[in-house]
Recover the amino acids of this structure.
């Protein structure tokens, strides 16, 4: 079984950016958010259970979930969020495990799990936690630049995520993604790639 590195970080910290750099080293990156999206896409595997729990008013059309309505509901109702997670998390876990098995020959794989620290159950399912870190102000600027969200929108999302300190407290490894760095993100990824190969018992490769 491959070593599993859990890649996480706050919104806009640069998780996807870092994931692409690992992928460029030939590492398989499995994205929990993408799986979650697939599960709730048209006729997705979680759809029937979600409608059984929340009701048919959460469908836009047969087989199509009203994502905006559901997002609104779970944003303001912790019980509803717990219900939704009780449906989706086991399915996400199964899909992550299945996809990890399919790359069993790889020395290590990366599970990109944005809410790894928030949802405590994920922590014990990875061998190491890799946190992508930057100051909150940098997160806000990046997210506003890449989306239509206002500063207040981004702050509201960040308020629902754990603090920078809480995330760093559980990190085994950290990538500093501040923008003004001694070591570029690319270099940090290369160093970690070698470390993970070593930890996985695989010979180091490349420059
Ligand atoms: P996350 O996946 O953590 O939400 P992203 O990887 O999408 O964050 O990064 C947020 C935005 O900032 C993206 O537009 C991304 O291209 C940009 N970005 C992140 N890190 C860097 C970096 N080191 N250099 C340049 N752009 C970056």
């Amino acid at each position: 079984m491959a070593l599993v590195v859990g890649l996480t970080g706050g919104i806009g910290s640069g998780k996807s950016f870092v994931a692409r750099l690992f992928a460029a080293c030939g590492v398989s990156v499995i994205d929990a958010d993408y799986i979650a999206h697939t599960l709730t896409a048209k006729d997705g595997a979680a759809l029937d259970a979600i409608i059984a729990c929340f009701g048919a008013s959460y469908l836009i059309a047969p087989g199509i979930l009203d994502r905006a309505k559901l997002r609104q509901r779970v944003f303001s109702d912790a019980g509803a969020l717990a219900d939704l997670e009780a449906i989706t998390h086991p399915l996400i876990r199964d899909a992550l495990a299945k996809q990890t098995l399919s790359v069993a020959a790889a020395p290590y794989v990366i599970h990109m799990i944005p809410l790894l620290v928030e949802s405590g159950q994920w922590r014990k399912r990875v061998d190491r936690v890799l946190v992508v870190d930057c100051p909150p102000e940098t997160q806000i600027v990046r997210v506003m630049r890449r989306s239509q969200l206002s500063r207040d929108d981004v702050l509201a999302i960040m308020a629902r995520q754990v603090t920078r300190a809480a995330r760093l407290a559980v990190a085994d490894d950290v990538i500093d993604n501040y923008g003004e760095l001694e070591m570029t993100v690319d270099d940090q990824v290369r160093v970690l790639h070698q470390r993970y190969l070593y930890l996985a018992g695989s010979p180091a490769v490349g420059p």
